[in-house]
Task: structure prediction
Amino acid sequence: MRISNEQIALVNDRIDALISAGSFYGKKLAEAGISGVSTPEDFENLPFSEKNDLREAYPLGLMTAPEDKIVRIHSSSGTTGLPVIIPYTAKDVEDWAIMFARCYAMAGITPMDRIQVTPGYGLWTAGIGFQAGAERLGAMVIPMGPGNTEKQLQMMRDMKSTVLCSTSSYALLLAEEIEKRGIKDQIHLKKGVIGSERWSEKMRRHIGDSLGIELYDIYGLTEIYGPGIGINCKYNTGMHYWDDYLYIEIIDPETLRPVPDGEMGEIVITTLVKEGAPLIRYRTHDLSRIIPGECPCGCKHPRLDTIMGRTDDMMKIKGVNVFPSQIEEILQSFPEVSSEYQIRISHLDGKDTMRIYVETNGSVSFLELADRIAAKVKSVIGFTPLVKVVENGLLPRSEKKTRRVIDERYE
Ligand code: ZN
Result:
């Protein structure tokens, strides 16, 4: 999906603003002698922006509108170094709420719903985004914030919340608590709107079934407004995103060139109307693909597939880009294997090889299972791995995040 003329006009307007504000990106363009774009090719040659650029602009170097127009900041967590500060104008705050309200409407949520918001409030864009969108829609917000499961369940019961907004892990915890206490008949939830961390299909089914609710994935990141820039519809065929506010490209993270619709790569986002901190070609390092064709729901907004991981997780094997989540998904289609696995990649005799270790109980033929898994990987990804099946419990486990992918080529 290449950039349209309308979108190009909006980009040029943002380029003018960035150059006259003298922001990092404005300077980058000025140095390159660029003052605008007129074709999709021009656009695809614009420099990228990166999280590091944003960090270097700390504290307020991203501010592109005059100070009297800025009404709020948000900040994204930096595990290392400085956080990123994103200034918002009143219009940015409103646009974000409009997009978020659209997300709720896409999920079939109406002003008669009661929305329990459990993501955190504060510098994060999470809680306040869920709340502003719900208010814009006209629904009733129950602004809980995270934690305090006792109180969450009490409010859920007494306020008869119909929508739960949360992370997938918190939804799972609540589902298990409700089950444990046997209070499912007192819960009125119909829908869950789940923030965009990566979660497996198995977990999704578990949460959906145990709470008896429909689940919707919402996408977004602090640098680009926050959550609410896209959501799946009831057909669950990818997340519709708002292309009147954003232009999304998928690029090959190695060649940095856009890939055709349908191909997996890195999500790169351009904000089309953002005032406080417009971003051009911002590399998210999230992996997904544009889903080609039309959605059965009839909505014309384009679709992004579920986030498949981060570019840092990508492996290139025999010239093919492979993501651990693709292997994980294949393994999940084999009910005989446990959820533990390990992938090892090495370079032997001038060739890349991938070994996949999986666990099973003793009830199946290990060799036959290994062959079936290898054949499935070959059919989905395009090369044949070596698959080794071991007894349940033999693969390493740890309290912290277990390291499942070991690339011996770089160790
Ligand atoms: Zn749809």
